[in-house]
Specification:
This protein is α+β, with helices and mostly antiparallel strands. About 40% of the residues lie in helices and about 15% in strands. The protein contains 28 helices and 26 strands. The chain is globular and about 100 Å long. About 0% of the residues have low confidence.
Length: about 900
């Protein structure tokens, strides 16, 4: 039976819903620390259209489309109608599987549609989080005994018997907080009867000139000014006492008056020169290489510099730490040494950070070797005692007769709050000045854990980052997840997608969002949380600690990702590993899906080479595409390799029919062009940018080629998938019908056509290096044809600036070369520009040249230097013409005079 997703998908509705509150998934994702949030609107649409039939009657088709459109206006919209259709179709709850479930967004939405959902993830940390979201939140716990705790003071929720899990989680977290505060009270002394909000720390290193220790501080501002409130802000300066050899922070109102001890030396902090460290005692400069080496050698020590309180009006106020606070921090370091273990696990995590993680766990570049090294001593002690409090409360629940499953759920939600605390802990938690001062996130992007020589530690107050605040957020998130729409509890388990624990043909649909190649280091990035979750869950779920990895972190053997920087540790997660195992996973999905079910894959990546490999894996798994639908679902990223992805493709696949015929190259290419042309109009209505259309074109290309067992050229040789991906991309460009002012893009010379299309797609932004190759192939060009048009760096390619242009202009030069040369010459005056025009043998009436100049000035950023030059050129066009005529006339006269001398030679 044909499924809806094979004929229609609500692209525009999904794109719109993903940006709305209900469809973004922000509430659901806030429950557990994980990566690559999948919007619930797309998850719902993918599950729904994968299960719904596609009737033959057109009136029924229209009716079904309207139901689905209505369902994408909220969590419970059209729920009754959908359940009736599914019950009539299957006679039972349909069965859905996500073999890469992550935080379980897809199983959650399947459960909300009253489907029997299953999720599998290789990461035990992800499986725990997915269980909390899609399974534990919807189990019936009403028969469980009453928890042996009482709430005091203000409650976060008003619970009833139907909301038992929410009420009990609130009680559990409150009790954990009480015990945690008792455990840590002596190490966070009150000042003025209140706990401080937090503390600003810095690492110290010994100066290689004078031998004194000094703190490495990159910024001196503590709170930004708020002129409307009469607040001048606060800053500090480093005072170095030459007599005592001690550095301390001197806090003052207003902007910084001193100089940081870490200052920029190179082009960026990531360059080889980077930030240098300057000793405040003797002004000796330590290069990035030197202070990094000292840190690697274990010479770093932690120094408490500043304390922070919260005023009655909520303002963060900074002050010097009192003696008692400094000594309390030192006592915490001593207490940490004597902390008892969690069973077989030492209190302070000793799990080693695997090699090859210099990009993912950035503190390994500064000497950290275990996950216990990432925090300063008091932070570590706090996490140890928080984990211990969770274990104590778990044991009290078990002693009171609470079932092991319910105790695991309650401890899991407490661990979820603890994981969010870790996101604001470690030496990667910077003080953020925006928003009145906050504790920063340790992730510099989606998955790289940052490191800094200066950082901020939260205290025991009830302010941002406190246990009270995190508990409130956890309870609120859980309550909102349940109130949005009730669901059948999913079954989430740890396992591998390459060996699924299900019978053949046992699932009505497989819907999954697999790892995107090298985009996120899921396993390595979550190991920091995993080692702490093992300790927090030790009483509730000792099996969480079971791992075959020799370092005690999550297993990596079947981790289906491409490891960034893997060569540094000889990591096995290569492109070949990914391609082979993702194909095995898709093959397993084909095995477990029913005969008339679909395998739906959600994928997005800006690198066409990644797409080629993924689509090849789908094909080698014995699947063919039967539908592909783009939607704007992602927020975009900063990574050039991701090309700022904002669109993902939802692809329906079926087992390849055994009776497929052979295809002929010419006919198949025509079919691909026609299919892409038909889709471009739909994509344009959905608001897709041309870069997204290029990515989406892979779908119809695969749909067409999947109709054939193989495709042969005129010589009888088999043609690979790459050829049709190129044809599809060229078809997007042709269907886009780009006009350069009034001239068709196709009417320009090939080199200029390539450049203008590139600018249309990317402007000055970086694009993956592989994109250059694919664009060249789509334009029927060689790499030599586009030489000196793009600047290629380590992170990608971008359109060349006129200043970087090095070509020689002749009468054979392309339009784009002349345009770049004219912009480069503009600062030297009209005569210099006119010389370029004359050398190119072009005049002021060359509509291709001036149309290209106008197009470039319009498409590139407004502040771009070349845009300024091209705009000035257009305004000075008449002057350029006059200067060119003068130069050309002078050249003609000189040529005639030279020719005359040749005809009338002199004797001498």
């Amino acid at each position: 039976m044909t499924r809806m997703i094979e004929r229609w998908f609500p692209c525009a509705e999904v794109s719109e819903a993903c940006s709305e509150s209900w469809g973004s998934g922000n509430t659901e994702s806030s429950l557990w620390v994980w990566f690559a949030k999948r919007p619930v609107a797309q998850s719902k649409a993918a599950v729904l259209t994968s299960l719904l039939p596609w009737p033959e009657d057109e009136a029924e088709q229209r009716k079904l489309r309207e139901i689905v459109r209505g369902a994408l206006k909220g969590h419970t919209e059209k729920a009754k109608e959908i359940q009736e259709i599914l019950e009539k179709e299957y006679g039972r709850a349909p069965r859905i599987l996500d073999p890469f479930s992550g935080r379980a967004m897809i199983p959650l939405e399947a459960g909300r549609l009253q489907a029997e959902a299953f999720g599998v993830d290789y990461s035990p940390f992800a499986a725990l989080g997915g269980s909390l979201l899609a399974e534990m939140a919807f189990r019936d716990w009403r028969k469980e005994p009453v928890l042996p705790f009482k709430l005091e003071g203000e409650r976060f929720t008003i619970g009833d018997e139907q909301d038992r899990i929410v009420t009990d989680v609130e009680k559990f977290l409150f009790e954990v907080g009480q015990r945690f505060r008792e455990h840590m009270d002596e190490f966070y002394p009150k000042v003025g009867g209140r706990y401080p909000w937090g503390y600003f720390w810095a690492s110290t290193l010994p100066c290689q000139e004078c031998g004194r220790r000094f703190p490495l501080v990159g910024e001196l501002e503590l709170r930004r000014p708020r002129p409307k409130k009469g607040d001048s802000g606060q800053s500090f300066r480093i005072h170095a006492d030459l007599e005592t050899g001690i550095c301390e922070a001197v806090i003052h109102d207003g902007p910084p008056t001193g100089t940081p001890t870490r200052v920029q030396a190179g082009k960026s902090k990531y360059s080889s020169t980077g930030r240098v460290a300057v000793c405040p005692f003797c002004d000796h400069v330590h290069s990035k290489a030197v202070h990094t080496r000292l840190s690697m050698e274990g010479l770093r020590q932690d120094q408490l510099l500043v304390a922070a309180d919260i005023d009655d009006d909520g303002t963060k106020v900074f002050r010097p730490p009192i003696t008692e606070e400094v000594s309390a921090a030192r006592r915490a370091a001593e207490a940490l040494k004597n902390e008892p273990p969690f069973g077989i696990l030492p209190a302070r995590p000793d799990e080693a950070i695997p090699e090859g993680n210099t990009w993912t766990i950035q503190s390994v570049n500064y000497g950290d070797r275990t996950y216990g090294d990432l925090c300063e001593a008091r932070q570590t002690l706090g996490l140890v005692r928080l984990a211990r409090a969770i274990n104590e409360v778990t044991e009290a629940c078990l002693k009171a007769g609470i079932s092991a499953e319910y105790a695991r759920a309650l401890a899991g939600y407490a661990t979820a709050a603890m994981m969010r605390k870790i996101r604001r802990s470690t030496r990667g938690a910077r003080l953020q000045k925006a928003g009145g001062a906050q504790v920063g996130d340790i992730f510099v992007n989606q998955s790289a854990v940052s490191f800094s020589y200066d950082w901020f530690e939260s205290g025991l107050s009830s302010g941002p980052g406190s246990w009270e605040s995190l508990s409130r957020q956890t309870v609120t998130a859980l309550r909102n997840v349940r109130q949005r729409a009730m669901a059948l509890p999913a079954t989430i388990q740890r396992g591998t997608a390459t060996a699924l624990p299900f019978r053949p043909a046992s699932m009505d649909a497989v819907v999954t969002d697999p790892p995107y190649d090298d985009m996120i280091d899921y396993s390595d990035s979550s190991d920091l949380f995993y080692v702490w979750a093992k300790r927090a869950m030790y009483a509730a779920d000792p099996m969480l600690s079971m791992t075959l990895h020799p370092f005690g972190v999550q297993e990596k053997t079947d981790d289906i990702t491409v490891k960034r920087g893997g060569s540094q540790g000889d990591d096995h997660r290569t492109h070949q590993h990914y391609d082979e195992n993702i194909a095995r996973a898709f093959s397993e999905a084909r095995r477990v899906v029913s005969e008339d079910g679909v395998v739906t894959i959600v994928f997005g990546h800006g690198d066409l080479e990644v797409w080629r490999r993924l689509l090849s894996a789908i094909s080698s798994a014995g699947l063919v595409l039967t539908g592909s639908w783009p939607a704007k679902t992602e927020a975009g990223g900063a990574s050039a390799t991701a090309a700022n992805i904002v669109t993902t493709l939802t692809m329906a696949c079926r087992p390849a029919p055994a009776d497929r015929k052979e295809g002929r190259l010419g006919a198949v290419e025509s079919q691909v062009r026609e299919e892409v042309k038909a889709r471009v109009e739909l994509w344009d209505r959905s608001g897709l940018a041309h870069t997204d259309m290029l990515m989406a074109s892979a779908g119809p290309a695969m749909e067409v080629t999947g109709r054939y067992s193989r495709i042969l050229d005129v010589t009888g040789n088999e043609v690979g998938l790459e050829r049709f991906l190129i044809v599809a991309r060229k078809a997007v460009q042709d269907a886009a019908d780009i006009k350069v002012v009034s001239l068709p893009l196709d009417s320009f010379d090939a080199r200029t056509r390539f450049a203008l299309w590139w600018v249309r797609l990317y402007g000055r932004q970086l694009a993956p290096k592989s994109e250059l190759r694919w664009q060249v192939l789509a334009g029927d060009l060689d790499m030599s044809d586009v030489k000196n048009l793009l600047h290629q760096g380590e992170k990608g390619c971008r359109f060349l600036t006129a200043k970087e242009f090095k070509g020689t202009i002749t009468s054979d030069s392309s339009v784009i070369d002349v345009a770049l040369a004219m912009a480069k010459a503009w600062p030297d005056g009209l005569d210099a520009v006119a010389e370029v025009l004359v050398d190119a043998a072009r005049d002021n009436d060359d509509q291709y040249l001036w149309s290209a100049i106008a197009y470039l000035a319009n498409r590139l950023p407004e502040g771009d230097a070349d845009v300024s030059s091209w705009n000035n050129l257009q305004r000075a066009r008449r002057g350029v013409d006059v200067a060119a005529r003068n130069i050309a006339g002078a050249q003609i006269r000189t040529s005639r005079e030279s020719a005359g001398r040749d005809l009338n030679p002199t004797l001498f």
